[in-house]
Amino acid sequence: MRITAARVVVTSPGRNFVTLKIETDEGVHGIGDGTLNGRELAVASYLNDHVIPLLIGRDPARIEDTWQYLYQGAYWRRGPVTMSAIAAVDTALWDIKGKVAGLPVHQLLGGRSRDGVTVYGHAGADTTEQLLTEVEHYVGLGYKAVRIQTGIPGLASTYGVGHVGTTYEPANAELDLPAESVWSTEKYLAQVPSVFKAVRDEFGPTLRLLHDVHHRLTPIEAARLGKSLEPYSPFWIEDPVRAELQEGFRLIRQHTTTPIAVGEVFNSIWDCQQLISEQLIDFIRTTVVHAGGITHLRRIFDLAALYHVRSGSHGATDLSPVCLAAALQLDISIPNFGLQEYMPHSPETDAVFPHGYSFADGYLQPGEQPGLGVDLDEEAAAAYPYRPAYLPVNRLEDGTVHSW
Ligand code: CS2
Ligand code: MG
């Protein structure tokens, strides 16, 4: 079997997605997600100009060899653009392998380790009172885990809070330049414990509650946040600080037992190595598209298993249904699964990417279709041309640029 063609499809059914489709001489095709929010065309160019010419004529069954060829063979390593491009190829090759075998990919990864993939939903609202209604909505749908985010008094807008009833989408295609938001750590730290208290008081001790700090604190501030939330037993706080300086997490660990989840902007096992091997985190949140595909993410999860670290894969709507389908194949099969983020895609996106996965009672099921269980409807995709859209830029109240 040989790869005969590959092409990149950039489509924007409400938001941009980059998809690689690989075709073979036996008529079987595979797809992979290469979406990098706000920098989509860089991955498309990396694939079109530098990767696709290398794929033609290769044996699609040689997934590991192709991964090493694209990774080591490029000499220049790691980084979100490179690793998303490699991920798109890797994911498409697993899709092909599953279809050839007539098996869903999780069967090739060792089969099911659990009956369903527990997911968390996003409750976000301007006020704590509105948030309680949002949480109620998720509990009513059967969710066992809910991420809670609210507006901060005194700040015009806050990460994680959309307009109630609409899909949260931080990248803005209406503006020529990135939107700008304003941040105050003092106002934030003064607000969050009361939000957790209100939700715990209303929903009791066993609902898993999560919160995303989105890289905004210093280690000592994060330690204070973790300590202040301990009475409300968060399931995790996510990205409490930027993770470039990983020894900073030792400081957080010295002060709090609140579990920590990190990794949505990581691209390789080397980005995770210190946090995992020093047991500085509890959940690793890397995902298929930004961390080199199924092949590499499984390696990260295997490393994590040695150190009591569980998976918590990123699953925002800027990762396409192809990425979600691939993540579910891993989630259902690995021994150290923790939790999967789930934000349902828009109906337009679901129509462009018909898929077999389904949600019921707080769990996602990957389905039993051969391969990943997701496809790309190219005709539907063609109706939604690419629209440039940037993620926001964040500033402190005095105008200093701060991590968004
Ligand atoms: C977020 C993401 O889902 C999450 O945890 O941190 O929504 C993140 O902001 C986006 O993926 C950025 O593209
Ligand atoms: Mg996050």
What share of the residues lie within helices? 25-40%
Structural class: alpha/beta
The overall average pLDDT, rounded, is 97
The CATH superfamily label of the largest domain reads Enolase-like C-terminal domain
The run of helices and strands is: EEEHHHHEHEEHEHEHEHEHEHEHEEHEE
Poorly predicted spans: none
Pfam family, one: MR_MLE_N
Domain Mandelate racemase/muconate lactonizing enzyme C-terminal: 128-259
Protein name: D-galactonate dehydratase family protein
Organism: Kribbella sancticallisti
Task: Write a brief caption for the model.
The chain is an alpha/beta fold and 404 residues long.
Describe the structure.
Residues 128-259 form the Mandelate racemase/muconate lactonizing enzyme C-terminal domain. This is D-galactonate dehydratase family protein. Pfam families: MR_MLE_C, MR_MLE_N. Strands 4, 5, 7, 8, 9, 10, 11, 12, 13 and 14 form a ten-stranded mixed beta sheet that branches. This protein is α/β, with parallel strands linked by helices. The protein folds into two domains: 3-104, Enolase-like, N-terminal domain (Enolase-like, domain 1), CATH 3.30.390; 108-369, Enolase-like C-terminal domain (TIM Barrel). Strand 1 (3-11) and strand 2 form a beta hairpin. The longest helix is centred in the N-terminal third of the chain and has 22 residues, at 80-101. The model has no long low-confidence stretch (mean pLDDT 97). The chain contains 13 helices and 16 strands. The N and C termini lie far apart (46 Å). It binds D-mannonic acid and magnesium ion. Magnesium ion is lined by residues 212, 214, 238-239, 264.
